[in-house]
Design a protein that fits this description.
about 70 residues; two-stranded antiparallel ribbon; 6 strands
Length: about 70
């Protein structure tokens, strides 16, 4: 609720108001120890310029590694 989205090429919901997004179809699932890797084919993509927001070390950050105000 409150987050914009649209339907991607595969029929999956994709978020709006983002810098980049990919709509993919899973081609295979590979067992890797106690993990699974999904190998997917990109069916649609979108990107626009902007400064990405990262979450690392329990905080939101920009690419310069300076903390970003997440208020």
């Amino acid at each position: 609720e409150g987050v914009g989205w649209e339907v991607g090429p595969t029929g999956a919901p994709v978020l709006g108001d983002v810098l980049a997004r990919f709509d993919c179809r899973i081609d295979s699932i590979v067992e890797a120890g106690d993990h699974r890797m999904l190998l997917a084919r990109v069916l649609g993509h979108f990107s626009q310029p902007g400064s990405p927001l990262l979450f690392a070390g329990g905080r939101f950050r920009g690419l310069s590694d300076a903390p970003v105000n997440n208020a």
